[in-house]
Amino acid sequence: MKSRIPSESLNIHTELIMPGHTNPLGNLMGGNLLSWMDVACGVSAIKHCGTICVTASVDNVSFRLPIKVGDVVVLKSFATRAFNTSLEVCCEVYIFEPKDRTETLSHTAYFTFVSLDENGKSTKVPQLQPVTEAEKILYDSAERRREVRLFLAGKMKGSETKYLKAMLED
Ligand SMILES: CC(C)(COP(=O)(O)OP(=O)(O)OC[C@H]1O[C@@H](n2cnc3c(N)ncnc32)[C@H](O)[C@@H]1OP(=O)(O)O)[C@@H](O)C(=O)NCCC(=O)NCCS
What we know:
By secondary structure, the chain is α+β, with helices and mostly antiparallel strands. It has helices at 30-49, 133-152, 163-169; strands at 11-16, 52-58, 72-82, 86-97, 102-116. It has a single domain, classed as Hotdog Thioesterase (Thiol Ester Dehydrase, Chain A, Roll). The protein is globular and about 50 Å long.
């Protein structure tokens, strides 16, 4: 199976925040943003795998900056690492400032998708080959994030972890 590079799964999705997306203070509701992030990352997963992909988990998401009605929000998603039947996808959310055309990073989150065949059975994913320095850093750190999420989901025993065990023993 041919390996892929992160830029092959890059997906850029833009939204204009409308009053129906916000709470009474005019701030974007977190659930709307999560839904857009899930779809954006799902598209990246499909671009990487070429199969049906389902969301297996979403890592902790902190809403650091409020997004206001009228803001233009840009979601950039791309695969960071492929495992066996699953892959990690990063979603970066930026607020676009039209006056000076800058983008401010407001959120980052990691989603895990599992590739399924036409019978709904999990199936092997193409490996991912990082190219840039930033992609290599994300690729290496994905192993640690995977350990934490599988441990928290009860899918990996503490004794099976490498990084987490070392951290807890510190
Ligand atoms: C995700 C799903 C396919 C996993 O199936 P499963 O039989 O429990 O999983 P398995 O133990 O066979 O593992 C399959 C892969 O999923 C990964 N996985 C399973 N649970 C996970 C979790 N909570 N977080 C991250 N990865 C997970 C495993 O690590 C494995 O990856 P690998 O092959 O690359 O090592 C299954 O739980 C499912 O269909 N869930 C519903 C998905 C869905 O509907 N999503 C939309 C939510 S509304």
